[in-house]
Design brief:
Layout: E1 19-24, H1 31-43, E2 46-52, H2 57-66, H3 78-87, E3 94-97, H4 104-112, E4 117-120, H5 128-141, E5 145-147, H6 155-165, E6 172-180, H7 194-197, H8 201-204, H9 209-212, H10 214-225, E7 229-237, E8 248-255, E9 259-266, E10 275-282, E11 285-290, E12 296-301, E13 307-310, H11 319-322, H12 335-355, H13 369-387, E14 393-394
Helix pairs in contact: 1-12, 4-5, 5-13, 6-10, 10-13
């Protein structure tokens, strides 16, 4: 079992102040923006102080009032917001981008150009050229660019990653990841405007579910195993109501060292909710994590009784997980805890950059713009493979 000493215990540094966070997107009816804001507030390291919350000026103003923002910090365009916040002595420290995919690149560029750190929804862009441009801009500026692959911020996902890295499974032999939801089974509902833009090729690019939840599955598998996905062969399908893009994808994949695996995602799997599950099998043991039971990690050694590691300090939980544990063992963890965890890591990174401090190696493990670019490459490879009749397609991205 992993022990407390396998990775040196270092808590996150105490904040010097609450950082100032702005939002682009997230206005009335935008579910994901509210989730970002709740996570940021729960971390106790951010105050939400400004926003361009909608492209509709009236909705932007109404949403600003809902969020209790000062009227002079409610903007009707992200470009104006970036410029004016950069000029303020109390301007935002970072911006959270929660808009449709096709706008991410332009918005990120506007804030990076003003020296403002960026937190972006996935996928970070709708094409690889734009994703690589953001990688280059981040490298040139040295700004923080975080991506909200928030499942990686669950404590027991960090536990799984630590155990794999420590060799407790032995050499990895196979990896399987799946993410099933049901919400795209019927036609889009008028009360969920996000359901419409998510299936619009002009706003999301060449894929729906492969880009939406497939990028989460791809990142989770690579994050826990520490291995890059190198190639795949994919079939994309519409299994729910008719729509112009996929709602289901089946893939055979390969990781480094030619490790085989599978990736299945569907948002038209009737009777499922948010069923993200990862299974990793090595030569000596296997582990399994299920997002719907996030406080548990199942670890089974070959020929031994099965074990369940429960989130909480002690009892074999390693230090990479310990930093993200907010409540004692037995108190249930939810997805909002993971959002608070990832916004804590973003805050530590942003504050350190702004104060000119070096972060201890291994302290932070949040997804970066490079992870975001790898996700875009994964989507493009899956679409290319599907169009080629399921041919093996390279999805490695050298950065």
């Amino acid at each position: 079992m992993t022990t407390q000493g396998s990775i040196e215990w270092k808590p996150f540094p105490a904040p010097g102040r609450r950082l100032r966070l702005g939002f682009v997107g997230g206005g009335r009816g935008a579910f994901i923006g509210e989730v970002h804001a709740r996570g940021a507030k729960l971390s106790n390291r951010w105050d939400v102080v400004a926003g361009a919350l909608s492209s509709d000026p009236e909705v932007a103003r109404q949403s600003g009032a809902d969020w209790m923002l000062a009227p002079d910090r409610v903007y009707t365009s992200y470009a104006e917001m970036a410029e004016r916040e950069a000029e303020r002595p109390d301007g935002i420290d970072a911006v959270a981008i929660t808009t449709p995919n096709n706008s991410h690149h332009a918005i990120a560029v506007a804030f990076l150009d003003q020296g403002i750190d960026v937190i972006c929804e996935k996928p970070i862009t709708t094409n690889l050229d734009d994703a690589l441009d953001l990688v280059e801009r981040q490298r040139k500026t040295g700004l923080v660019f975080g991506v909200t692959h928030t499942y990686a911020a669950h404590a027991m996902v960090r536990q799984a990653r630590e155990m794999v890295a420590a060799g407790e499974l032995g050499r990895i032999r196979q990896v399987h990841v799946e993410y099933a939801q049901e919400w795209a089974m019927p036609p889009p509902s008028p009360d969920r405007k996000g359901a419409f833009w998510r299936i619009d090729p002009k706003q999301v690019g060449p894929a729906f579910s492969t880009a939406d939840v497939g990028t989460h599955a791809h990142h989770l598998a690579c994050f826990v195993t520490g291995m890059e996905m190198t190639k795949l062969r994919a079939e994309l399908h519409v299994c729910g109501a008719p729509k112009p893009l996929d709602d289901t994808a089946f893939m055979h994949v390969r990781f480094e060292d030619d490790v085989p695996g599978t990736l299945w995602v569907s948002q038209a799997a009737a009777g499922t909710y948010c069923a993200l599950r990862l299974r990793v099998f090595g030569e000596r043991a296997g582990l399994e994590w299920d997002q719907e039971e996030p406080g548990l990690l199942h670890f089974n050694r070959l020929g031994e009784p099965p074990q369940t590691i429960v989130r909480g300090v002690g009892a074999g939980v390693g230090n990479s997980a310990r930093r993200l544990i907010r409540m004692p063992r037995g108190h249930l963890e939810g997805s909002i805890d993971a959002w608070a965890n990832i916004y804590t890591e973003f805050a530590v990174a942003v504050e350190a950059r702004r104060d000119g401090r070096t972060i201890d190696e291994g302290l932070l493990d949040y997804p970066t713009v490079e992870d975001g670019a790898r996700g875009v490459k994964f989507v493009e490879a899956a679409v290319e493979s599907h169009r080629a009749g399921g041919a093996w397609t390279d999805c490695r991205l050298s950065l």
